[in-house]
Amino acid sequence: MDSPATDAVGLAYALYAALASGDRGALDELLHPEFVGETTEGLPLGLGGRYEGPDAMRRSFWGAIGRAYDAAAEPSDVQVLADGRVLVIGRYRGSARSTGTKFEADFVHVLMLRDGQIAGLTQLTDSARWAEALQTTSDIAPSVDLDELTTLTFSVSNGLAHITLDRPDDANAINRAVTRDLRAVAQHCANDPAIRAVLITGKGDRFCAGGDIRLFAGTAHRDLPHLLDEMITDYHVALDTLANLHVPVVCGVQGAAAGGGLGLLHVSDIVVAGDDAKFAVGYSALGLSSDGGNTWFLPRLVGAAKAAQLFFQNRVLTATEALEYGMVSEVVAPSDVSGRALQVAQQLAAGPTQAFANMRGLLRGAWDRTLTDQLDSERRTIVAVAATQDAAEGIAAFTQKRSPEFRNA
Question: Where do the H-state alpha helices sit in 135-278?
């Protein structure tokens, strides 16, 4: 008679066989009526998220995958955990149907079983690999050539990407070139697997004054809406890309951060500010509304009442107030901002990258989840991350009283 572990392993292999062959009948038998799927946040085509019920998973996830990709999940290691769940490690192989681009992406799946069926699946995979396969040559941000950037400097060293706003004579204000450059480097960061942390700073005595008011004033009024539409479209793509990176982002703020420039703080995980820094939105003084994600982030960070005060009364916050409001992580002397932000970013770049990626997803996703869903996501994620070599190294280093050497594995 087969053991429960043998049955569990058999169910796992049956699932991958059914998916590979597109056997709808087999999937109906394998999936529990209360099946729930949790897929990787950041997958293209809006595929990342929660799917409740076998039909939702089949139609909205596996079906959408099949329409966009010719790909299969190839398990290489299947293990039954002590609590009866099944850990599957493997690799997706295939190509995107629209571009023909081949890709490979490692995965970790955790299967939950109930009554002899599969009641849940948690998926972790490299979403950037899936996104790259869908991109045409014109869509893909080219490898960043420092000679082609006109408003930023960008470098990658020892796993740390450093983005520096470089319009110091204009308070690093955001113009059309800035938004194009930011979109390019953000997409590069998303597509470069060597990057393990990102640092954002500004050159000169002010971090970012927001939109370039002189540009707006010099633009014919009839042309301003089109200009803003182009600028903000690229800028918001850059912010969304940075917010959804699978690596931590650090920001160093000196002098002032205002308007849309605050968006770069919002998409960062750690913000180091000089004690002379000032923070403001300032839109109503210009007769404008908002961009940069401010109306989404600020109510969540500071509360609805304080956010309304910032927007309607144009209140300017000191660094100490911004720290109290939760907009920045720490305040240091102005001369120490660059050094401290770099130190933090370097520490994160040397950390457990896959654990950080999942921490980032959990923290940002928590704003839109119930406690019950968040607890479930935490449980599933930590089980999956426990399978990484970095987890083994971290536990070994702790017990051996030495510093861990994480390798993003």
Answer: 176-191, 213-217, 224-243, 262-266
Which is it for strands 49-52 and 69-80: parallel, antiparallel or unpaired? unpaired
Is it the case that residue 199 has pLDDT exceeding 50? yes
Phi, psi at residue 48, to the nearest 5°? -75, 135
CB 384 within 8 A of CB 401: no
For residues 379-395, one letter each, b for 16 or more C-beta atoms within 10 angstroms of the residue's C-beta and e for the rest, the string is ebbebbbebbebbebbe
Q: What's this model's pTM, rounded to 2 decimal places?
A: 0.68
Q: What is the CA radius of gyration of the chain?
A: 23
Side-chain half-sphere CA neighbours of 369 within 13 A: 17
Residues 371 and 231 in one domain: no
Q: Residues 251, 341: contact at Cβ < 8 Å?
A: yes
CA 8 to the chain's CA centroid? 33
Give the integer Cα–Cα distance in Å for 273 and 207.
10
Alpha carbon distance 259, 273 (integer Å): 16
Q: Which residue segment(s) compose the domain that 70 sits in?
A: 4-134
Q: Which residues contact 388 (CB under 8 A, 6 or more apart)?
A: 108, 352, 354, 355, 409
Nearest to 262 by CA among 304, 290, 227: 290
Residue of 288, 289, 243, 246 whose CA lies nearest to 266: 243
In a domain, residue 370? The reply is yes
| Residue 146 confidence (pLDDT) above 70 | no
Per-residue pLDDT, 384: 83
**What is the distance between the terminal CA atoms of the chain, rounded to a whole angstrom?**
38
Q: Are 27 and 121 in contact (CB under 8 A)?
A: no
Exposure string of 8-22, with b = 16+ CB inside 10 Å and e = fewer, is bbebbebbbebbeee
Three-class secondary structure assignment of 48-84: CEEEECHHHHHHHHHHHHHHHEEEEEEEEEEEECCCC
Domain at 36, CATH number: 3.10.450.50
Q: Quick one: pLDDT at residue 139?
A: 43
Q: Both 60 and 126 in a single domain?
A: yes
2-42 confidence digits (pLDDT tens): 445 568 899 999 999 999 988 888 999 999 999 999 998 87
Tokens found for residue 255: 């002098």
**What percent of the chain is predicted at pLDDT more than 90?**
62
Task: Report d(CA 138, CA 30) in Å as an integer.
Answer: 42
Average pLDDT over residues 378-399: 88
